[in-house]
Design goal:
By secondary structure, the chain is of the alpha+beta class. It is built from five helices and four strands.
């Protein structure tokens, strides 16, 4: 561990007495506010920003990471008067959850399909193609061991 680096657990464990998400209403801009999300980084910040911008009621969505060594993000949201930043963030989180659930489902279906011996993938590839796939995509041997056999 480097001398100034924080302990690894500090990257994802919210300290006792702190909330994961806090909201502060903007006093200058109507229907706007900032969410402080503890122990998250650009991965979640950019996902939330993009999902919020898909909502037609969101006028502005952006995020910042106040300090590179502190894994907290601030997500700023401004909405139309007919909704609130809290509702917009909740909607974005629900939409992201359903997108990830669908992505997981499709991934598992495809993984199961490719794991089957002599499946469609295996039958469509010549020996040379299988050899090239193993060399170019080493994870294929882990995902599909029967398909990665070199003849």
């Amino acid at each position: 561990r480097a001398m100034n680096a924080p302990d690894r657990f500090e990257l994802f464990i919210v300290p006792d007495g702190c909330k994961k998400v806090t909201f502060e209403k903007d006093t200058k801009v109507p229907s706007a506010g900032a969410f402080l999300i503890m122990r998250e980084d650009h991965t979640l910040g950019n996902l939330l920003r993009m999902q919020l911008l898909r909502d037609e009621d969101v006028l502005f969505a952006g995020y910042k990471m106040p300090h590179p060594l502190e894994h907290n993000i601030v997500v700023k949201v401004q909405t139309r008067d007919r909704t609130t930043p809290m509702n917009a963030l909740n909607g974005a989180l629900i939409d992201l959850q359903s997108e990830f659930t669908e992505l997981e489902r499709v991934f598992k279906v495809e993984l199961d399909r490719r794991r089957q011996p002599h499946g469609e993938f295996y039958q469509q590839c010549s020996c040379a193609q299988r050899q090239r796939n193993v060399e170019e995509l080493p994870f294929l041997a882990v995902l599909c061991p029967k398909q990665a056999i070199i003849h």
